[in-house]
Structures are given as C-alpha cells and as structure tokens.
Design goal:
about 350 residues; about 10% strand; about 45% helix; alpha/beta; binds S-adenosyl-L-homocysteine; six-stranded parallel sheet; 13 helices; single chain; TIM Barrel
C-alpha cells in the first residue's frame, strides 16, 4: 500500500470517516511499517490538541456486588467464588483525599450494579466528594439506570458518566449478555446521559467473543452518531469463572491500532490507555499513549479490596498502594517523554451548564 496508506490516513482525518475494508486492513493486514505510520500520525494528532500531556483519572472500585450476569465479567452475580465487598462513604472519601494529595483531579466511582447503593446513597457520596474537593470532577460508572436517576446524579454534582456500550450490534450484544439486558437499552442510556449534560464515555472490548470487523465498524458509526467525550477500549481478557473462560483473549496490538484509528476519527476525544491494555502487554499503556491515547486511570481503591475487583484474569496493580501506582505511572509516562498533569482534563469543547 506504501504511499497510498498515508493518503488513506489523511483522507480519514479530513472526512472523519473510515471504510469497513480499510478498518479490516488496519486490524488484520497492515505491515509493520504501516503500523508505525498509523501510530505516528495518531500521536501527532493527539499532540496537536493535548501536547505531550496525559490526564489522570483515579479509579475507585467501590463495590463488586452486581445484579447482572454478563458472560465476560468476573464479578457477574453467577460467580459464587467472589468475595464481595462494599466501601463505606468514609472509605471512598479517604480514597479521594489520598488521590487529591497525589495530584488527581478526577475520581471515577466504578462498581457492579449494586442495589445497596440507592440513588440517595449515590447522590450523598457525590455531594460529599464535591464538597471536599470542589476543584475535582466526579465520574460515575455504575451501569444502566433510569433517566430520573441519572438526572439526580447530575444535579448532585456528578460531571461525567462512563458506560461502555460493549457492542453496537444488537445480535452481538445478545451473545455477550443474558436475555434481560439489551443493546438498545444500553445505547438509550448513553443518549439520555448526554442529553442531561454529562460528559459521556462509551466503548467496547476489543476481541470480545464473536466480534467481527463489521461489528467494530458499527461501533464507529454509533460513536459518530453519539459523539462521546470519551471512548474507553481495552482488550477482552477471559476470566476463569465465566462462561467465556475458554475464549481467546483480545490482542493488545489490535487494541492499539484501534486507539490510533479512533484518535484520527475523533481528534479531541479523551482516550484512555486502559488497565486491560496494560495487562495484555506489560508496555501496553505506553504504546497506547504513543498511538494517540491521552488518559490513564490508575487505581485508587484501598489495597485490601483490589484483588476482589477482578473483571478478568491477570489484572495488574492489584498488590499496590495508590501512591505506588501513581509513582509508577508517572515514571512510565516520563520515560516515553510525556508528562502527567494535575488537571480535571475536561473535553476541550465541553462547558458545563
Ligand atoms: N457495572 C458498570 C461497570 C462495568 S466494569 C457498567 O455496567 O458499566 C467496566 C468495563 O470493564 C465493562 O464495561 C467492560 O467493557 C469491561 N470488562 C468487563 N469484563 C471484562 C473482561 N473480561 N475483559 C476485559 N474487559 C472487561
């Protein structure tokens, strides 16, 4: 493809579109040299908006109870071998205090869909964090809720919401989830969240069972319609106590290639190099940043619960303290010439209100 490859990348940037054939070529056919060209182009695109800086999100995994039974997820309710935990409001606030001291200006509260955390409790936690840290953004990642609940979270001060759509194709969605969950509802939640005024993040697992290039193409079309502020992608990694225990892991290389494609199509989007990517490849997060990602999400959960929030096997950083994770990631970013900044890291075009 040589010269033609670069032309096609330019074309993608100019039109904001990619063909299914070219996407397939990038995921399955490109040469090592073309891969380098793709990463370099995506990296330069990211630097035009963000420079050589990386935003931090402190992840607080506050409950591993879940009422859902997603076939891929290690904390699905059907997994009876999980030792379940919930963090108290005080524990969550302690994580935020520690995070703020370390320079974090965004806290992501993630958990299973745990009915114990009623809307009142979530709103109370959000308010308490915003009161203690008014300069920080609060992101929720707690699954599918009613419109009214999302509105209440927003009114309580939550700034952002992460809800990976997992796959835009509804047949594929049904292969990854039990019957009571639907792709249509999940996508509707994202539209609702956006309408309410959240900065929203959608996303997928790369290499999830039965996924085809056609599905990823549909994911891109969905993202172009939704125009999310953030896109979270990571490789699918099998968990031994799930129905997908024998399925093949997604590849770090394909994930990184897709990060680069997303950067070219969505030049200003917030794009994390995820923990799953760092699990699939020890240098995955660095490679992700060098292919256009601009966010990392170190773990701020208390160390005694970290090995209980296992969505997939082999998860990294489960034995570390927040301060260690923080120092390690900062050093990793510096080694590749990037600097972690103490900034909320809102989407460049976003204005609340
Ligand atoms: N309950 C929340 C949070 C889910 S966990 C919600 O519904 O949004 C966050 C993300 O981890 C999921 O959206 C999924 O994309 C990812 N994940 C879950 N299991 C995984 C696995 N086995 N491999 C890789 N990623 C996984």
């Amino acid at each position: 493809m040589d010269g033609a490859f670069e032309e096609r990348l330019k074309d993608m940037q100019v039109t904001g579109k990619i063909t299914k054939d070219f996407l397939d070529y990038i995921l399955h056919g490109m040469s090592a040299e073309e891969r380098e060209t793709l990463y370099k182009t995506a990296r330069e695109t990211s630097q035009e908006t963000f420079g050589k800086t990386v935003y931090l999100r402190g992840l607080i995994e506050f409950t591993n109870y879940c009422r859902n039974d997603c076939y891929y997820c290690g904390i699905r309710c059907g997994n009876r071998n999980v030792s379940r935990y919930r963090l108290t409001e005080e524990q969550i606030l302690n994580c935020c205090d520690k995070g703020a001291e370390l320079g974090f200006r965004t806290f992501v509260l993630q958990g299973g869909e745990d009915p114990y955390y009623t809307d009142d409790r979530i709103c109370g936690i959000v308010r308490a964090i915003k009161q203690a840290h008014p300069d920080c953004a609060v992101t929720l990642s707690i699954g599918e809720k009613e419109y009214e609940s999302y509105q209440r979270f927003y009114d309580a001060g939550a700034d952002r919401y992460l809800l990976r759509h997992e796959t835009a194709n509804e047949e594929h969605y049904a292969m990854l989830h039990p019957e009571n969950l639907s792709g249509a509802h999940r996508k509707q939640c994202l539209r609702d969240l956006k309408k309410i005024g959240f900065q929203v993040g959608c996303g997928i697992m790369v290499g999830s069972p039965y996924q085809t290039t056609g599905h990823i193409y549909e994911d891109i079309i969905f993202m172009q319609e939704l125009q999310p502020h953030m896109i979270g992608i990571g490789p699918f990694l099998a968990h031994k106590a799930t129905p997908f225990k024998d399925e093949k892991d997604g590849s770090a290389e394909q994930t990184i290639a897709l990060l680069a494609v997303l950067r070219l199509l969505f030049p200003k989007v917030l794009l994390p190099a995820t923990t799953a990517l760092g699990t699939a490849d020890a240098l995955g997060r660095e490679k992700g940043i060098l292919a256009g990602a601009n966010v990392i999400m170190p773990n701020l959960s208390p160390s005694d619960v970290r090995d209980k929030y296992l969505l997939y096997d082999g998860k990294i950083c489960t034995g570390e303290e927040a301060a260690e994770c923080n120092a390690c990631l900062r050093a990793r970013m510096e080694r590749i010439g990037y600097k972690v900044v103490s900034d909320r890291g809102d989407h460049p075009d976003f204005m609340k209100g």
